[in-house]
Amino acid sequence: MTDFIDILEQQLVTAQRGRGRCVAAVPWRTTIVFADAVAAAAVAVVVVLALSSPQRHGATSPPAQRPQTTPVTPQAPVSIAVLNGTTVTGLARAAADELTSFGYDEPNVVTNDTTNQSRARTMVFYEPGHKADAQGVAGCLHISFERVAPMEATERALSDRAQVAVFIGADRAK
User: Fold this and answer.
1) Is residue 68 part of a domain?
2) Is residue 65 included in any domain, yes or no?
3) Same domain? 160 vs 84
4) Is the model's pTM score more than 0.85?
5) Best label site of 16, 54, 76, 170, fewest CB within 10 Å?
6) Residue 64 located in a structural domain
7) Which residues pair with 123 in a beta bridge?
8) Which domain holds residue 6?
9) Residue 133 to residues 79, 122, 125, 136, Cα–Cα distance (Å)
10) Which letter, b or e, does each residue of 98-133 get, where b requires 16 or more Cβ atoms within 10 Å of its Cβ?
11) DSSP assignment, residue 120?
12) CA-CA distance, 23 to 152, in Å (whole number)?
């Protein structure tokens, strides 16, 4: 039985020596693992603080400002006359209705051109200072700007001194 105790004692001594080596190795490994855990925790704290704290630095670009607009002064209504220069009934009224659908005031004069009932092409005439108004009217009626001209005495008299006068031609009858 002494042999058994000797063998058991031998095993305990060997186990103690092996244990000693493990205990010596554990502090070294533990230190590394502990250092890594501390570093990871520090990074996590820095990231959380950076994301949750308000910015203390000025913005990299100035905040967008709304452009200031000046109020648009509506232009005075333009007086318009529409005259039918053909024998086709209703062309002047149709053009006048088309202009009012675009927001123009009802034309002052909607009648027949008593001096010329055989106009081939529609023309738009304007008083001095109303060329842009005449071009706007021409655009609404799909009339080429080539057919916009200054008003002369005959057109002025027929349109009852309107600022813009539209003389409807046969091209609108199609």
Assistant:
1) no
2) no
3) yes
4) no
5) 54
6) no
7) 167
8) 1-53
9) 10, 16, 10, 5
10) bbeeeebeebbbbebbeeeeebeebbbbbbeebbeb
11) S
12) 116
Give the model confidence (pLDDT) of 24-38 as tens digits. 444 556 667 677 777
Q: Which band of pLDDT confidence, cut at 50, 70 and 90, is reported for residue 116?
A: confident
Separation of alpha carbons 34 and 41, rounded Å:
11
Handedness of CA 163, 98, 141, 93 (dihedral sign): negative
Query: What is the rounded CA–CA span in Å between residue 122 and residue 139?
Result: 12
Two structure tokens written together for 154: 């005959």
* The token pair that represents 99 in the structure block: 């202009």
Amino acid at 86: T
Alpha-carbon dihedral 140, 145, 147, 153, rounded to 10 degrees: 90
In this predicted structure, the answer to whether residue 144 has a pLDDT above a threshold of 50 is: yes
Report how far residue 79's alpha carbon sits from residue 59's, in angstroms, rounded to the nearest whole number: 54
Cα-based distances in Å from 29 to 21, 22, 34, 127, 134: 13, 10, 8, 99, 92
pLDDT at site 133: 92
